[in-house]
Amino acid sequence: MKNIPLLAGCAALQQRETDVVKSREAIALMIDAVKAAAKDCGNESILQYAQVIYVPRGTWLYSDPARLIAGAIDAPQARTVLADFGILQQTLIGEACERIAAGEIECAIVAGGEAKFRQLQASIQQVVTPETMQDSQPDEYMVPDADLCLDAETQAGLMMPVGFYAMIESALRYARGETVDANRHRIARRYQRFSEIAAQNPHAWKRDVLSIEQIRDPVGKNRLLAFPYTRMHNSDWNVDQASALILCSEKLADQLGIAQEKRVYPLASSESNHMVCLSQREELHRAPGADIALQAAIDHAWLKKNSFDFLELYSCFPAAVQVCADALGVGDESDLTVTGGMAFAGGPLNNYVLQATCRMVGLLREKTVAANGLVSSVSGMMTKQAYGLWGNEKPKQPFAFLDVSDAVGAASNILPVLENYHGTAMIVGYTVLYSGDTPTRAIAIADTPASERVVVYSEEPLVVQRMLGDEMCGSIIAVDGQSFTLAEPVAQT
Q: I want to staple 381 with a disulfide (CB 3.0 to 4.6 A). Which of 164, 305, 331, 484 is the partner?
């Protein structure tokens, strides 16, 4: 193998400064993370070799954040890349490694960060927090090929990701044959374990171990957002966190004297960019890309589904964890996170995979024998899926960046979604949205007798309450345009 890519250094950091005047903006945290990653390499001069800097977009307004990083690390030659929402974070890592493996570049940086906690404190204190202004544009701006949701979905009230993932959760529950109460207990038990793991992670935002009841039950600040998800099931994005990965060729690592014990190797990166909105999917509880991308990656790396020493499954919501866990064939007997997950370790928007990769690298470095780990990535409403496979020993096969989108497209059946249907339909997924502590709107995705789809809602109090108690997947509803009423439930066929 002529060009072997490796991770030479990484860093994840956070700030908890409540004094807004003293706190630093997101780009400053990103620059700090990049410099810390260079220090982690053992040779800070590696920054001078950076030829590409990738940054996934956050809630900030920087037009070309990678150029600000390039200026701060004295790498003016670096090509700058900004990846918009809807681009998998793993894509940036995979592309960087692919370009190194192809001999196109010797060194790349992937960095990201948020300062939402700073913004929250500023709002509470009624203080303005200015951001660095830019006129420049990135050398490359990566954008998704399609929309993440349909007009029919937004018109029914599905605005925030929590509603979409709660829909997926209901379909997962139904497919598993679980009761509503059993499902609520199971996902709370899983997240309780996540809180235990976060308590052991020095970079976790929250390190308090919670009980199942504290996660499951809507008490106090832990209110329901979209049934069955409470706040504790949601990614915590009100964090000040940043991270950076420095990837380079083995040749450059040798030249700079990067210690062997620092080197962690990408084995494969696989992804599906086939985009289908939730209500168009034949099965809400599955993502064909999660299965196909996983198989492609492990086949290339000569691994098996059950052979990973460490797992980090993307955890914006419990449903995302479950879909990837199902693809892997693992259950709660396995630890599914090394960070503690986005609800506890912190979920900086569009940057978590970098945080998770830093933690994975640290654990692989600690192993004195051969070890490997998997980090999954999700974008949108479980729209795209990806995996990064890592090992602490030089791989026996070349790195591969695998795009399985065509195969996923061939395996996906896309259903038409009607916006003005009148008649009966069978619920395949549903949730109830809340305003404060009050359940306000029930939303359902349902199949018509002609195998078409509708996305409908009801604000009738009796309907809303019924859908908070009984299992409604498989039930028949009467649809009138965008609204629905309940009919008699039918058994699953």
A: 164
Token code pair at residue 450: 């002609």
Burial category of 145 from C-beta neighbours within 10 Å (exposed 0-12, middle 13-18, buried 19 and up): exposed
Domain end call among 351, 383, 411: 411
Q: Flag whether 183 is in a domain.
A: no
Tens digit of each residue's pLDDT (9 = 90 or more) over 284-339: 999 999 999 999 999 999 999 988 999 999 999 999 999 999 999 998 889 999 99
CB 383 within 8 A of CB 320: no
Looking at 395, 411, 427, which one is the last position of a domain? 411
Give the β-pairing of 421-435 and 438-447: antiparallel
Report if residue 204 sits inside a domain: no
CB count, 10 Å around CB of 492?
A: 11
CB atoms within 10 A of CB 53: 30
Residue 468's identity, in one-letter code, is L
Q: What is the pTM of this model?
A: 0.95
Q: Which of 172, 184, 91 is nearest to 380 (CA)?
A: 91
pLDDT given for residue 333 in this prediction: 86
d(CA 308, CA 396): 17
Let me know whether 382 and 439 are in one domain: no
Residues of the chain with pLDDT > 70, as a percent, come to 99
Report the DSSP pairing between strands 79-83 and 240-249: unpaired
